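[audit] Reproducing an earlier prediction to check determinism. Same input, same settings, fresh worker. If the tokens differ from the archived copy the diff job will pick it up downstream; this log only records the rerun itself.
[audit] input (230 residues):
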Amino acid sequence: MKKIILAFLFLVAYVTLYADNNNNYVRQEKARLFGLTIGYSQPSFYEKEALLSANTTTKYETNHFHSLLAGLTINPEFGSGLGILTGVQYNLVPTVQRVGKPQDYIKKSIIMHDIVVPLRIQYRYEFTPAFSLFAYTGPSLGVGLSFEKTTQTYKEEKLVETLKENLYNDSAEKIYSRFHTFWGIGLGIILNQHFRIEYFADWGLNNITPYSFRATRFNKIANVALSYMF
């Protein structure tokens, strides 16, 4: 993560120096304010579990999923390319896993819905009216709407048991917290002042489990999005 942050800072510094040395071009006053966004995300649960035994060890495990995202992008600028990137993003995570033999197996289905609200500081430099480069960093807050897991056990290809769980159950037995905090960075381009293409990564800041011996971070390392700005 340190290397990515250093690369991000280097990019911002380079674009700033380039802008200082090219003052003949008159930039547009501000970027488009609102936009509709769709994209793809690859969220993951990164678990660090201390095994409570005579010889205590630490176990690391990462579970990756695939997610679709859609939402509203809001991008006000204050001048000189500086602005805020915010909005509302909806994420849908549908996942099916099958474990076992061809006839005797377990099928696990997960459907997760959540809402994310980012609050980033962004710098944008316009090379021409048709092409801008931008980069941003900042926190975001995620709220889980639902996280349902269905486990089906098959024997000789016949369903013998179905178990449904709400992993956001707000009881004392809850597995994951509904609330996620992230810190992220991103960069991208704007074409013809309307089409915004970006790649960004978010790292979870809080332990989303109630267990002190199992620290779990909800990360979203690989995200790509396309927005149409109005």
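[audit] rerun output stored. Observation attached for the diff report: The chain is about 10% helix and 65% strand.
[audit] end
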